[in-house]
Amino acid sequence: MSKNLIIKDNALISASYHLDLIEQRLILLAIAQSRRVGEELTATTKLKISVSDYIDTYSLQGRSVYENIKKACKTLFERQFTYTEQQEKGVRVATSRWVSEIAYNDKTTAIDITFAPSVVPLITMLERHFTSYNLEQVAGLNSKYAIRLYEIVIAWKSNGKTNQIGLEQLRDRLGVFDDEYQRMELFKRKVLDKSVAEINEKTEINLSYKQHKNGRKIVGFTFTVKQKSKPKKLKTQEQERDPKTPDIFDNLTDKEREIIAQKNAYADQIGATEQHRQNLIKKALEQHRQAEQSEQERKQREKAERLAQEQQDKERLELAKRQFEQILASDGLINAYIANNIVAKYLSGLQKIRFEQGDFRGVFEMERYKFERLHELQRLNLKFLD
Q1: pLDDT by residue (tens digit) across 293-343?
Q2: Rounded CA separation 306/272 (Å)
Q3: Domain 141-231's class?
């Protein structure tokens, strides 16, 4: 798994909040950093982000980067988000800050971020429904709306299509203020179309949308998400870990994480209870792991059989080499070989000339290649050596 993996609970993906571009980038980099530190993330963990890491991640230039980050630190502390949680009795609506503390150091040009207590489980408790993607996919996006739209639709990538998202709900999730882009033409041109174009240009997905109307009024949108074909990559000495290796943080493989996301999306579609959701996930994971185990055992059997056959072939060729030398050392065995394996009328070239001249040793020496190739060796009659 990439060290820059971003994982968010779907409650956070669906939350309503307003973050500008730099604030979003700091949050995403801090989430990625939380998975690199190698220890459990808590509400007291200070995550250090260097300005150089920020610049490298987002491919930025200019002397004003640090000053802009310092300004974002001051505003980020005041930012809030609102999210919902389905409970046995009704829906819990919660509002939280993003960070409980944020600090900067002019001498080291580094930022320390401490996530608020409510945020920590939303980026670490992965036994529930979550969305994941690599930070590299959004690092090139220069619009705060494009980043949010990418997060919203990527949760539906395995389905290929989102449910209908109401207009007001979409505006809330994208962080569009009530007094911004009130005309639909402006909202589509400045927010939606611009974000879709940037996502299609700079990420691994192709995105399109369909608008839904009530009479002449647009009331919602459905997004279609398609994975771009991946170019073949040259292997390098530094490879990312095997996608079948469980991650040290959640003990899930990439495929298992994808299965959970698919089942959560299905559970959302059918309005499943939490218990039904967990049963769907448990059954799907058990079936996948059983199939993986069977496949692994099959590959191990095939490997053992292949290695045994290779050893057998090696030993047979080594024996054939000794048999060739044994025959070559005896005129009697040469004559026996020719009697059992040579048909004069099928000879040609130099071997035919040698045979006609009675140079049977020379004829046999030209048979050496047959003792070096298994398919030729199988045709020889060497019973006279018994």
Answers
A1: 898 899 999 999 999 999 999 999 999 999 999 999 999 999 999 999 999
A2: 48
A3: mainly alpha
**What's the helix, strand, coil split of the chain in %, to 5?**
50, 15, 30
CATH class belonging to 1-139: mainly alpha
What are the C-alpha distances in Å from 360 to residues 193, 319, 344, 370?
A: 85, 23, 12, 16
- Alpha-helical runs (H) found in the chain: 10-13, 21-34, 51-58, 65-76, 119-124, 135-139, 144-154, 167-174, 184-186, 193-202, 254-270, 274-328, 331-341, 349-356, 360-365, 374-377
pTM: 0.56
Both tokens of 377, joined, read 């060796």
Q: What are phi and psi of 15, to 5 degrees?
A: -70, 160
Q: Identify which of 268, 261, 252 has the alpha carbon closest to the alpha carbon of residue 165.
A: 268
Among 169, 182, 255, which residue's Cα sits nearest to residue 219?
169
Please answer whether residues 1 and 240 qualify as being in contact, where contact means their C-beta atoms are separated by less than 8 angstroms.
yes
pLDDT tens-digit readout, 150-163: 988 987 887 888 88
Sheet holding 91-97, edge to edge: 16-17, 80-86, 91-97
Which amino acid, one-letter code, is at 297? E
Q: What is the pLDDT of residues 239-257, one digit of tens each?
A: 455 556 655 445 677 788 7
CB 323 within 8 A of CB 348: no
For residue 101 the two structure tokens come to 């503390």
